[in-house]
Amino acid sequence: MRIKVKNLGVLKQAEFSLGDFTIICGENNTGKTYATYALYGFLDLLRKQFRSDDHRYLPKRVFDDLVENGVSRLNLAKYAQNAQKILNRICRGYSLDLHDVFSASQEKFQDCQFRVFLENNTMTSSIKSISFERNIGIGRQTLSLTKDKESEELEVSLLVDKQRRSFTYRFVERRIAGAIHEIIFGSLFPTPFIASAERTGSAIFRKELNFARNRLLKEMSQADEKIDPRELLYKSYQDYPLPVEKNVDFTRQLEDVVKQKSFLTDKHPEVLKKFADIIGGEYRVTRNNELFFVPRGKRVKLGMDESASGVRSMLDIGFYLRHVAKRGDLLMVDEPELNLHPENQRRIARLFAQLVNLGIKVFITTHSDYIVKELNTLIMLNQEKSHLKKIAKREGYDKSEFLNSEKIKMYIAEEDLIMLDGNQRRTRCQTLVKAKIDPELGIEARSFDKTINEMNEIQDAILWEED
After folding, report:
1. Residue 291: strand, helix, or coil
2. How far is CA 77 from the centre of its chain?
3. Which residues make Cβ contacts (< 8 Å) with residue 86, sequence separation at least 6?
4. Are strands 291-295 and 408-419 parallel, antiparallel or unpaired?
5. CA angle, 334 as apex, 282 and 279 as ends, to 5°?
6. Which of 85, 294, 347, 381 is spaced 20 to 30 Å from 157 by Cα?
7. Count of H-run helices and E-run strands, the chain
8. CA 389, CA 163: separation in Å to the nearest integer?
9. Three-state secondary structure call for residue 30
């Protein structure tokens, strides 16, 4: 999957591909967060489109056949052939609404374009790999949608009383459209979970955020009947970008979140142990929705306002890993190094690498040379050389953390000479430049190397230069 943006914040034009592990680094105000938020907003929208009523895929004759015979079959291959056209239409609509993702004025995004391009050779294999089943009932009537693995057909069954049929053509069309959409795009576009750079604030102020919501609901109940309560509720949150709003909602709902278990909890507790080592303890939520941090080896419970900033910055990531994570997800973290000691930055890099090897895609923006260099180490150790095995054992690295260089894509947000659409000459502008990744040497991260080299030269001059 390749993403192309134009006039997105400071990014004049840029392209990047989503890998198993995607990294964007660069200086401040160079477009990293813009690219991250735009991608998250699109993936979030796409999941909602599975239930959208905007699509018209169903010929009228199919509905008539369903009513008459109770069953019909649709060949999904022809819909897959039009997948890019469907995606283009979704992207056009999304580009017009991008300002909502950033909670900004429409004028700031009026020339923005966000496009996604598929690899054509993945569509047929993607469809065949999916099994799908959904039953929708109204009273004693049922609409059944099923697709077997390795099949390219969607079978639609309509069990209704012809004299009391409550299923309309539009209702059936929407449900079939959603099923087709999910089958075609579901395996290609991961379910995103984002931890924004503002996550520390949502952790410490979760009680206040609950109070603010409750107060708003009270005001709504006392409002004039002509006021739309939903509009009032929406306006109260429109000052926050979508990823920040998602972080707020997630931390507010922890009492419900903890009722679930992720596949990591059941099958890979060692990952959760590594996370506990990073934060130095564990989180706990009481039945009264009270949130505490329990430091390892101590008999105390600390509120978020009493806990270290690193504990707060890792809160939603921790609950995601323990209670929400699924294979195929995309974990997006804006600046994972927030408030973490360099040693813990190295540990979080190793944790991310293990998640990638377990089937969770990871997308990060970072200013951390420690994270990038640790990822370099994991790439370089992924070779069948005897001396590397000795080093890995001596330094405590596990094979589950080693990274295949082909799984990583890294981009540097910086100015570069590129060919803008419609231009014959290269223009210098803000973009994303793909970094070289070598299986033996690791990632070429000149964004950090330049600063480190300058610091080393200054210190060498201090030590060795004389009047």
Report:
1. strand
2. 28
3. 55, 79, 181, 184
4. unpaired
5. 15
6. 85
7. 20, 17
8. 73
9. coil
Concatenating the DSSP letter of every residue in 404-461 gives -GGGEEEEEEEEEEEE-TT-SSEEEEEEEEEPPEETTTEE--HHHHHHHHHHHHHHHH
Alpha helices, DSSP H only, in 186-328? 199-204, 206-221, 229-237, 242-252, 254-257, 263-267, 269-279, 309-313, 315-323
Residue 304 CB contacts under 8 Å (≥ 6 apart), including other chains: 203, 204, 206, 291, 293, 311, 312, 315
The encoded tokens of residue 253 equal: 């709902």
pTM of the model: 0.86
Q: State the DSSP code for 307.
A: S
Element (DSSP H or E) covering residue 157: strand 153-159
Query: What integer best gives the mean pLDDT of the chain?
Result: 86
User: Tokens at residue 266, please?
Assistant: 């059941």
DSSP symbol at 53: S
Q: How far apart are CA 203 and CA 277, in angstroms?
A: 20
CA nearest neighbour of 314 among 260, 251, 357, 360? 251
Kindly report, residue by residue over 170-182, the tens digit of the pLDDT. Answer: 778 888 888 888 8
| Closest C-alpha among 236, 191, 136 to residue 330 | 191
pLDDT tens, residue by residue, 420-442:
988 889 999 999 999 999 988 88
DSSP state of 120: G
- For 343-382, give one letter per residue: b (16+ CB within 10 A) or e: ebbbbbbbbbbbbbbeebbbbbbbbbbbbbbbbbbbbbbb
Cα-based torsion angle of the residue sequence 388, 393, 399, 405 in order, rounded to the nearest 10 degrees: -30
